[in-house]
Design goal:
The protein is of the alpha/beta class. It folds into two domains: 4-105 and 265-274, 2-Layer Sandwich (Nucleotidyltransferase, domain 5); 119-260, Nucleotidyltransferase, domain 5, CATH 3.30.420.40. It is built from ten helices and 14 strands. It has a five-stranded mixed beta sheet with strand order 3-2-1-4-7. Helix 5 packs across helix 7 and helix 7 (196-220) packs across helix 8. The longest helix is centred in the C-terminal third of the chain and has 25 residues, at 196-220.
Amino acid sequence: MRGVLALDIGGTNIRVAKVRASKIGSCLKVPTPKTRQRFWREVVSQIKSYVGEAKLDGICVSIAGFQRHGRIIYSPHLRYLEGCDVRRHLAQKFACKVWVENDAHCAGLAERYYGVGKRYKNFVMLTLGTGIGGAIFIDGKLYLGKGIGCEAGHMIICGKKFEDIASGRASVEIARKHGLNMESLEVERLARKGNKKALAVYREVGYNLGVGLANLVYILDPEAIIIGGGFSRVKFIWKEMIKTMEKLDKAKRRVPVLKAKFGDDAGLVGAALLPRVHL
């Protein structure tokens, strides 16, 4: 089985698949282990299960966290991997080329080449989930700065991290403030039934998201903003988010805010693009 294999390593699951363009072949999925030793044992086992004894041309990795040249600098959900050189470890184990990139950057690449970002050269991608990830594209290329660029969830807004006031995890904390001691899915269920407290939670989250988007618009003046990630499916955040962004933008740019094409597959599709964009 010659070819390039894609891995999507998240805080909850690890997925392994062969990807051709935006089409994903059969996919292996396992829970992400809780220790470094078990993690490497599982990753190596899953790759071997997928390819058998065949040689690989390369392995492309999408991973949740800050990385530079394949070494994990910070990962809130994979703290045991901090300091670990993922690229070197896999390259030595499988004797092939390895590419490693942040999961939100990979999601952005998927949208840039195969999704709603195809028509834009300058746009911002945000992934809303437990936290918030981001990717910036300038002149059609992913902007990395010195290697870590666009960790939007770590912007500081009114003394707090953006993702601490505008993510799926934040919605649970805000719900508690409104007297709703429950998980995100339960808050969403109540909102669908018209519960005023639940709807107030999402208005607050939507407002906070709009403030963050307005900051990005003022700094980057993008052609579009693309929103993906699991939390983006919550329809109740969208109206307040867009209204707040447009109200705060005194230049009246009316930047389109678009829903991403790819859902859970964004990391795999984007990872498979890494050799093409030479990251």
